[in-house]
Design goal:
single chain; about 120 residues; alpha+beta; Immunoglobulin-like; three-stranded mixed sheet; two-stranded antiparallel ribbon; 5 strands; ephrin receptor binding; disulfide bond; Ephrin_RBD
Length: about 120
């Protein structure tokens, strides 16, 4: 039993040294990072990280009380696209697009951790 707990503790300590956990992002339309006039929304990841250390961030999906009307609930899908497609706001090759986060359960408390 002692060996089992030692391994678990070592894994937890090892995991905590890999990169930085960046601040969570509430992914909803009321978050100021989504305003078009906001120019202060860039988060640098893996800055000065040694090789094989990756930063993580949690995307917090919108959550609503049970009595909220469905029309007022936000749901989202977040895709990873090539930078050129992002810059042009146009998908050139659908095979290069990858769904990475699905926020489709607005009555549940959910988040998705992304590792960069």
């Amino acid at each position: 039993m002692f060996i089992k707990w030692t391994v678990i503790v070592c894994l937890v300590e090892f995991h905590s040294t890999l990169g930085v956990h960046l601040p969570d992002i509430p992914w909803n339309s009321s978050n100021s990072i989504f305003r078009t006039d906001n120019q202060d929304h860039i988060i640098e990841v893996n800055k000065d990280n040694p090789e094989y250390e990756y930063d993580t961030i949690n995307i917090d999906c919108p959550r609503y009380p049970n009595h909220t009307s469905k029309e007022l609930m936000e749901t989202f899908i977040i895709y990873n696209v090539p930078k050129s497609d992002y810059d042009s706001c146009n998908i050139t090759n659908p095979w290069d697009v990858h769904m990475i986060v699905v926020c489709d359960k607005p009555l549940s408390n959910r988040y998705h951790r992304i590792t960069f």
